[in-house]
Amino acid sequence: MSKSDPKSRVEIHGFEAKHYDALMNVISFGSYKKFIKSAIAAMKITPNDKILDLGAGTGRNACLMHEYLSEKGKYVGMDISEEMMRQFKKKCSAFPNMSIVNQRIDEPFSYENEFDKAFSSFVIHGFPQEKRIKILQNIWKALKPGGYFFLLDYNQFNLEEKPWFARKIFKTAECPYAFDFIEKDWESIMSDLEFGDFNTKLYFHGYMRLLKAKKIIK
Question: Which CATH class is domain 17-215?
C-alpha cells in the first residue's frame, strides 16, 4: 500500500484537500471546531510535550495544539497530500517548533522513543487491518516509555442496531474498511501490542470516541 488505496477515503487529494476545512464545517453543521477543540483539550498537553500527529492535514489541529506548547515543546505532523501540506505550512509558518513531513503512517518511521504524545484523528479506520496493526506498532516505537497515544475515531458499535438514518449516513459516507473497524475491540487489540491504562471520552451519542492508551514496557 505504498500508493494511495482506492478503497480508502482518508487519503485526500485535489478539490477535497484544498477545501477540507470548509467542507468539514459544512458536513458537521459548524460543530467540528468545537468537537476537535474538546478532544485536544482532553489530551492535557503540557508546555514541553513533544507531539506526533498522524494525518496532520491542513494544520487546523496543530494550531489548537500549539496553544498549549512552549518554545521547548515540539510538534511533528505527518501527511502525504501536497495540498494539505501547503495549507499546513501556511498556517504554521510562524511557529518554528511546528513541522510536517511527507510520510505514510503505514510505513516504517525513523522515530524511536521520541514523543510524549501521539494523536490520530479519523485516519486509522481507513486502512485494512494488517496496516492498522503496523501503524500502531509504528506509534508504539515512536513514543517514549510511558507516552500516550490518543485515537480519535469511531467507537465500537453494531451498525445494524443503529437507527436507519445513522446506517444510511455511515454506508454513504464511509470507506469499506470502516465497517470492520467499528466491530473491533480496540482496547484488546492494543493491549496485545503493549498499550494499556486505557481511558475513553465519547462524542456524538457514543458514535465517536477519544481512546487514550499508554505505551507499556513489559
Answer: alpha beta
